[in-house]
Amino acid sequence: MIGYAFMGRVHSQAWRNVAAFFELPAKPEMRVICGRSKEATEAAAARMGWAEAVTDWREVVARDDVDIIDICTPGDSHAEIAIAALAAGKHVICEKPLANTVEEAIRMAEAAARGPGKSMVAFNYRRVPAVALARQLVAEGRLGEIRHVRAQYLQDWIVDPDFPLVWRLRKDKAGSGALGDIGAHIIDTAEFVTGQRVVGVTGLTETFVKERPLEGGSRTDRGTVTVDDAALFVGRMSGGALASFEATRFATGRKNALRIELNGALGSLYFDFEAMNELWVSDGGAGFTRTLVTEPEHPYAGAWWPPGHGLGYEHTFTHEIKDFLEAIAAGADPSPSFADGLRVQRVLEAVEQSNGAYKEIP
Ligand code: SOE
């Protein structure tokens, strides 16, 4: 694993727990974790269950006893690490968004297509049981032809203008702001649930707080925010649906509200990650009915607790690792692939360039 911060922690718990809950074709061994600071990486290794800690990712990629590389770093290093790992014959799972630019994502998708290793981009919300169930209902035709997709990802962690200029607020590190960090998730979720692709978009972005205190500096030491705080866009889907997307870090009071509503000719469905064990479905009658997605027959749910006991954010990563390992063992292509990640990247770029104009996705 490369990186040990938020994503490193949540992926580590997935690697650690996956074989305890799912019957797997192979059991992962947590060989080595890599980070820039020796002391912090060693502490992370001890806490999270990695056998070794190193500070140079190239050393990890070159090792014969490593089969899988898990990239949990900021976007500016995804392309270099993933392409080197794939060239060394490793399987690669990479955090989202796949890259900081379309050009990098193209190179990553090309390296993935060359193989021989398998690759996956970590859009974990596909693996929420309720989201996977929503996709099943759409695929079974229960909603009929989909007319509307309404997707939102609402957070509020930077509403305070004195929140520091962390890496997620710097274009050189993160590529974009709310757009790439959380907008990428709702593009993927919309495509996954509907089985349709975003084929064109019209968007607007805004940076509300243009300067913030430098990390570790005094409150008066401020730097420029170089990414968007919020992105709104509408789009057309390949199956004819009209879609609206809203990604913001300024939705005061909303912590991690990834929401999606679909309206079809026969019915509708609605999901909100802040109540992630629920899926609301309508057959067009008197409003929506709640399904608690914790029954053994629901996607992934049977591996965990009795009905009604519920899952959390971390389980989505365990499911992701399970699916990745199964695909590798079967010689199949994991999903979402780097090609899927590239498509999302093209939508992000189109939104950034749009400024109110309609952009088709190549
Ligand atoms: C921060 O906005 C963040 O951690 C994202 O980077 C993740 O992808 C999302 O799952 C939660 O919020």
UniProtKB/TrEMBL annotation:
Q: Does the keyword Glycoprotein apply?
A: no
User: Does the keyword Oxidoreductase belong to this entry?
Assistant: yes
**Which GO molecular function terms does the record list?**
nucleotide binding; oxidoreductase activity
Write the record's keywords in alphabetical order, separated by commas.
Oxidoreductase
Domain GFO/IDH/MocA-like oxidoreductase, which positions?
A: 132-269
**Pfam families associated with the record:** GFO_IDH_MocA, GFO_IDH_MocA_C3
Q: Organism's domain of life? A: Bacteria
Gene3D superfamilies of this UniProt entry?
Answer: Dihydrodipicolinate Reductase, domain 2 (3.30.360.10), NAD(P)-binding Rossmann-like Domain (3.40.50.720)
Q: Which InterPro entries match?
A: Gfo/Idh/MocA-like_OxRdtase_N, Gfo/Idh/MocA_oxidrdct_glycsds, GFO_IDH_MocA-like_dom, NAD(P)-bd_dom_sf
Query: Which residue ranges does the record assign to the Gfo/Idh/MocA-like oxidoreductase N-terminal domain?
Result: 1-121
What is the protein named? Answer: Putative dehydrogenase
Q: What is the species of this protein?
A: Nonomuraea endophytica
